[in-house]
Amino acid sequence: MPTTRRTFLAACAALPVVARGAPRRPLDLILFPNNLGLRPPNPGVEPGTWRAPEMLDKAGLSAKLRPVHVARLARRPYSPDPDAGSKVRNGSALHAYLVELAGEVERSLGRDAFPVVIGGDCSTLLGGLVALRHRGGRGLVHIDGHSDFFHPGNHDYSKMPGAAAGMDLAFATGRGEDVLTRWPGVTGPLVEDEDVVQIGERYDVDDPTIYPDLSKTAIERIPVQAFKAAGAAATASRVVARLAARKIDRAWMHVDLDVLDESVMKAVDSPGSPGFTYEELAAFGRALLASGRIAGMNVSIYDPDLDPDGSTARAIVACLGSMLA
C-alpha cells in the first residue's frame, strides 16, 4: 500500500519520544527565503519557493525541531533576467545573498551547533558549503532527484538564461561562471569531485544527452533505482563508507524535496517518479546524521504556491522531525 501524507503523519505521531539527556548537538534553524536561482514558472510570475521557510514554520517546524537559535534572513528582490555579461539569472544578487547566508551558518558552526537551513531553491547549498570551508570542513552529500550539473560547458544557454538551481552541483565543484564559483576566503572549488556523493537522480545517470560530462567525473552517483533496491540503511552505510574513505568528518548535506516521488510530493517545480517515500527520506537522513559526519544541512525547493491546503507542508515538517529527532 503506497504511503500517503496522512499515513506518514500518523506514523510520525506514533514515534517514541527521545529520552531526556540523550546526547545531541544544539540545533539552529536558519530561514532563508531564496528564489533567486529559479526561472519564472510563467511569464511575469515569481517562483513561490521564497515562501517555504515561512510556511513550514507556520506548519510547526520550530515547534517540532525545538531549535536553540532561529535566524530569519531578509528576502532579496527577484529578477527574471541575467546580469549584464552573464548567462545566470540574478547571479550577482545571489552571490551576495549566499555570502550573507554563509555568515549565519558559520556563526552556527562556531557555536558547535547543527545548522538546518530552510531555503527556497537549490542554490542555497552553496552558502552552506562556503561556511563549511571557512570552518575547516569539506564534502557534500547531495540528495536530489536531479544531479543539477548543467553549466555553460555542457549546456547551451544562448536561448534561455541559466537558473542556478539547476546548476548548483556544477557551481559547487567549480564549473560555471565566476560569479557563483569564486567565494571570499575559499581557494579552488567549494568541493572536490571526489568528495561528493549524489543520491536520488531519477534519470539515466549515463545518458549523454542530460549531463554529458558527469559520468567522466569522480563524483559517486547513486541513482534512485539503486537506492530503492538497496534500501535506506544500506545506502546510508555506502555513503558513510565513502566519507570515511575520503577522511571526511564534517560534510554538508543538501536535501532537495523533489527527491520524493511525485505521488507524495507535487509542491516542487520538477516533480517526478520514481522517488523516495517520506519514510525512506527520514530513515536515510537519520542514518547519515547518526554517523556524526554531517556538519549541517539545507532543505530546498518546496513551493507553497503548489500546496494550497498546506498538507504537504505538514508532511515535510513531520519528515524533518523524524529525521532530526
Can you tell me about this structure?
By secondary structure, this protein is of the alpha/beta class. An 8-stranded parallel sheet has the order 2-1-3-8-7-4-5-6, with helices on both faces. β7, α9 and β8 form a beta-alpha-beta unit. It has a single domain, classed as Arginase, Chain A (3-Layer(aba) Sandwich). The chain has 10 helices and 8 strands. α4 crosses α5 and α8 runs parallel beside α9.
At the fold tier of CATH, the topology name is Arginase, Chain A
Number of domains: 1
CATH superfamily: Ureohydrolase domain
Overall spatial form: globular
Number of strands: 8
What amount of the residues lies in strands? 5-15%
Overall radius of gyration: 18 Å
Query: Order of strands across the biggest sheet?
Result: 2-1-3-8-7-4-5-6
Low-confidence stretches: 13-23
CATH class: Alpha Beta
Major pleated sheet: 8 strands, parallel
Number of helices: 10
Structural class: alpha/beta
Q: Spell out the helices and strands N to C.
A: HEHHEHEHEHEEHHEHEH
- Per CATH, which architecture? 3-Layer(aba) Sandwich
Mean pLDDT, all residues? 90
- Assign a percent range to the helix content: 25-40%
Distance between the termini: 26 Å
